[in-house]
Each structure stands twice: as structure tokens, then as C-alpha cells.
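ok trying this again, last paste got cut off
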Amino acid sequence: MNITINSKNVNPGTKLEAAITNKIAKLDKYFSQDAEAVIMLSEERSGLAKLEATIRAGSLNFRAEETNSDLYYCLDRVLDKLSSQMSRLKGKLVKRHKDVKEVYISEIPDLPDAVEDQGVVRTKEIELTAMTTDEAILQMELLDHSFFAFADSETGTTNIVYKRLHGGYGLLITK
């Protein structure tokens, strides 16, 4: 597994970097192919640090984050979240999507809750690859997002699946 550690306003030190590398490398057992892990350490507020982890392996993206004053605690909690996601979904993926081609769609950021004439604060390009609606819902759940854009494998149109407030999912189909 390729592991990249980035930091913003935090100096992780060699001991923490070694702990991150050793613990994240243990998740490699979940993948049959090379995976890429990107770890971001940042300072949230005075005394609080944030650890974000994104693992990309073929068509799968796993993401978890934790905020606490102790980065080692954050690392353990993020590993628990990632391991839980992988364990919970690995069986389902193997059973339901045996013959699916590799699909990769970059993470789509959520909009902030309070939007006040800020304009566009971030632009991100994504690569749409054909997949079914069920695969898009699964990818949205893996990323723990409320929506997900994808190219429909049957029609070739760009569609968006989203979580409804009172449960279930919605599908926006473009013309």
C-alpha cells in the first residue's frame, strides 16, 4: 500500500509518522490490488487536531476522519472506522459485483451548512465512469456522502443519487 502523509499547521514527528504507516499498512489485507492511502493531519481549533484518511483501491474509496486533542487517539478511531467500513462491505461487494470493471470517481465535497454569497470556494474535477445505480449508492455509502454523481452504464447519461432526509435514496436523471 502506498501511504502519503500530509500535514497542515501540525508537525507529526517521526514517531507519529511511523505509527500511522504501520497501522494503515495493516489494512492492506483487505485489498487484492495495490491501494493508495492519503492521510491528512491538520489543526482544527486551539488544542484540537484532525486526522483524515482516504484509501483508494480500484473502484473503491474509503474515508474516515476524527478530531481530538490526541492524534494517536484520532489514528485509532479512524482505523476502527475504516476497518468497519471494509469488513461490512467486502462481502457485499464480492457477492454483488464480481464482474464489475474498475470504476474510479473522485470524492465530491459536501457544501457547507451556512452558505452566504460566498461564491465558488472550491472547484474539483471528477472523472465519471459508467456504473449502475446500485454501484453508485454503494460508492456513496463508502464515502459517507449525501450525494454521488456517476455515468449510468445503460444510458450513458450523468445521474446523481442522494440520501433522502426521511430514509431511502433518490435518483436525479439528466436529459
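PB: full thing came through this time. Confidence is low (pLDDT under 50) at residues 99-116.
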